[in-house]
Each structure stands twice: as structure tokens, then as C-alpha cells.
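[recover] target loaded
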């Protein structure tokens, strides 16, 4: 195994929905040495793209099959890290339903090892039996105070499987719209230096 791990190639594909108001872009990983691993990564990406679409349609219409109430849907992705054999990406989906006051954005992330195809949950980033939930929650609580973020309620702690991604030399914990603060704050991100 080489100590030099080049970034994987990521290309953009567009989902052909037949509807000009549904514009979904998503990443496809290429150039992975093990084609089984490459296929596994791309399958997981596509699964998440489809889940975001289904969840957004279902959230506004009450039924997954009811796409008529959706005026606009835009999907995108961002590469957060692509180095040292680790790929961390976030997938976003903005949906605007018919006659709504505003649209909704949902962001979900995937972090994986491009050599093994293993996907990492937040808990996988820490030693077993470490108190990572408390440690991260304390750091986030401090940032909330420093940034003077007005919360919808008291912040107790992150979930053990809280949304996250890796970017540069940071672990970024983030919260969905309305998860801890009002819509105006958007997707709240808390970078934690590693």
C-alpha cells in the first residue's frame, strides 16, 4: 500500500427528471483502484440523493407520490475533503412547495474511506467509550454563546449520530433548519479543530 494517496476524481452528473424545475446535480466518484469500492461509494451517494428527494417531497405533501405540490427542487453537492484516502461530501436539497412562505433546505453528508469503501458515522471518529457527545456539545455550547446565536430552546447536547463532515483540519458538526435555531440562521455549522 502506498503512503501517497491521491484524491479521487469526482465528476458531476445531473438527474434527468423531465421537469425543468427539478434540477438535481450529484457527484460520481471515478478512478478508485478497486471497482467494487467505487461502485459501493456511488451506490451510497445515489441512495442519499434519492432519499433527500423523497424526504423533501414527503415533508411538504404528506405523501411521497405527490410531486404536484413542489414548485422547485434544486439538488447540489460540495466536496468538503478529498485527501489521504478520505472523501467527505455534503449533499443539499432545496425544495419550494406551491404557495409556501419559503422553501426548505436539507443537507446530509457522507464521509468514507476510498480504499475500503467504509462509511463513517460520527461515533466512528472517536475511541470507543470516549465521551465525544459531551465534549463536542461543550465546544458547540461555547460557540453558540460566542456567536450570540439565539436558540429555539435550551441546547442540551448533540445526537450521537449528529450530522457532520470533515473539511481541512476540522470536524464540522451541523444542524438542520429549525433543529436548534430559527430559519434565518440557516444550516448552523460548528467547526471544531482537530
Amino acid at each position: 500500500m502506498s503512503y501517497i494517496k491521491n484524491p479521487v476524481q469526482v465528476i458531476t452528473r445531473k438527474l434527468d427528471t423531465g421537469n425543468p424545475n427539478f434540477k438535481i446535480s450529484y457527484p460520481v466518484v471515478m478512478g478508485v483502484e478497486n471497482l467494487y469500492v467505487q461502485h459501493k461509494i456511488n451506490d451510497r451517494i445515489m441512495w442519499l440523493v434519492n432519499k433527500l428527494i423523497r424526504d423533501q417531497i414527503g415533508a411538504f405533501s404528506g405523501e411521497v407520490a405527490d410531486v404536484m405540490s413542489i414548485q422547485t427542487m434544486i439538488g447540489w453537492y460540495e466536496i468538503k475533503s478529498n485527501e489521504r484516502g478520505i472523501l467527505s461530501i455534503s449533499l443539499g436539497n432545496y425544495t419550494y412547495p406551491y404557495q409556501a412562505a419559503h422553501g426548505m433546505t436539507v443537507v446530509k453528508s457522507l464521509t468514507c474511506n476510498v480504499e475500503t469503501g467504509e462509511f463513517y458515522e460520527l461515533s466512528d471518529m472517536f475511541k470507543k467509550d470516549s465521551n465525544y457527545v459531551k465534549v463536542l456539545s461543550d465546544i458547540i455550547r461555547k460557540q453558540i454563546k460566542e456567536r450570540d446565536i439565539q436558540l429555539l430552546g435550551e441546547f442540551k447536547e448533540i445526537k450521537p449520530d449528529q450530522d457532520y463532515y470533515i473539511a481541512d483540519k476540522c470536524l464540522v458538526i451541523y444542524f438542520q433548519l429549525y433543529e436548534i435555531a430559527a430559519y434565518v440562521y440557516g444550516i448552523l455549522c460548528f467547526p471544531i479543530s482537530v
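[recover] notes: The helical segments are 35-61, 132-146.
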